[in-house]
Design brief:
Blueprint (H helix, E strand, L loop, with lengths): L1 H16 L30 H16 L16 H114 L7 E12 L2 E10 L5 E11 L5 E14 L4 E8 L8 E11 L4 E6 L7 E2 L3
Antiparallel strand pairs: 1-2, 2-5, 3-4, 3-6, 6-7, 6-8
Length: 312
């Protein structure tokens, strides 16, 4: 340690003896070291972009004049080199900083616009998806309604076919009944022409039956003078006294069974109360029907109709 300090002191004394000027100027401001005193630092060869940047900086430095900017005062005699170095330093970095800021702003804008675009398009896509789903649901419902309508249409068509068939059957039956009525009229006309009774349901005979003290029946036999078969026949009659006055209301002698053309049927009525002897039964109307063929005819008896006076 002592030897090194001695050598350093000797070197400093030798420097004073050589007569070199002091680096401390009279003004008290340290002077800039000479180029020969600056440490030699190896400098790498600049790249093309760095060389362009240095040239641009040099041109800016050369165009600057002391006192031209209101913010920069003219350099003093001893500090001009330092101002030049500071100016060059900032001039070299301003374009780079501006470029970095521009890129950062562009990235921020891109990210923001991208987020907004994604949010807008994403929301729009969700809306369209929901609308599409709603449309599909509506189409499915419409299809189902159409199928139901088709089923109803098919059912109505089937019912219409049945009604059409039933109408045809009724029309055919009506034609058949019309034909039978014409036959009945023809038979009645033929009977009148031959001197026979013109009554389609003719009175043939009367009889009385008393099965017990409380049972009194009047039987009236009739003949079918038509060409139609009936399954029911009835005779309406009244009771008259010796003076020809009607006693009570109408009476009905009825029977069911097969009454073929030219055949006879025994109709009867049971009295619920005792009928005085001496009253006369006078037929007034007749009727016959066929429940299967829906055939029905009726008529009135004339003054020459057969009558009967009760005996019991």
């Amino acid at each position: 340690m002592d030897d090194g300090a001695a050598q350093q002191k000797s070197s400093m004394n030798n420097g004073d003896d050589s007569g070199t000027s002091s680096t401390e100027p009279a003004t008290g401001v340290p002077a800039e070291p000479m180029p020969s005193d600056r440490p030699q630092v190896p400098v790498a060869s600049p790249t093309r972009s760095e060389d362009w940047l240095h040239r641009s900086t040099d041109s800016v430095e050369q165009s600057w004049e002391p006192g031209s900017s209101p913010n920069v005062s003219a350099p003093s005699a001893g500090g001009g080199q330092e101002v030049s170095v500071v100016t060059r330093f900032f001039a070299m970095r301003v374009p780079v900083v501006a470029l970095i800021i521009t890129i950062a702003v562009a990235l921020i804008l891109c990210v923001g616009v991208g987020s907004i675009s994604y949010s807008w398009f994403g929301g729009r896509a969700d809306t369209l998806s929901r609308q599409l789903q709603d449309t599909k649901s509506q189409l499915a419902a419409a299809k189902q309604e159409n199928e139901k309508a088709g089923d109803k249409t098919g059912s109505l068509a089937s019912q219409n076919d049945k009604l059409t068939k039933a109408n045809k059957d009724l029309s055919a039956k009506n034609d058949e009944l019309t034909k039978e009525n014409e036959q009945l009229k023809s038979a009645s006309s033929a009977a009148s022409a031959s001197g026979q009774s013109s009554d389609m349901i003719q009175i043939v005979s009367f009889s009385e039956q008393r099965q017990s003290a409380d049972s009194h029946e009047l039987h009236i036999t009739v003949r079918n003078n038509t060409q139609v078969t009936f399954d029911q026949a009835s005779v309406t009659y009244v009771l008259r006294d010796a003076s020809g006055n009607q006693v009570g209301g109408n009476h009905y002698s009825v029977e069911t069974g097969i009454l073929a053309p030219g055949g006879t049927m025994d109709t009867y009525e049971m009295y619920v109360s005792d009928v005085p002897a001496g009253l006369t039964a006078v037929p007034t109307q007749w009727s016959a029907s066929n429940t299967q063929n829906k055939t029905y005819i009726n008529g009135q008896y004339g003054s020459g109709v057969m009558t009967y006076t009760l005996q019991k």
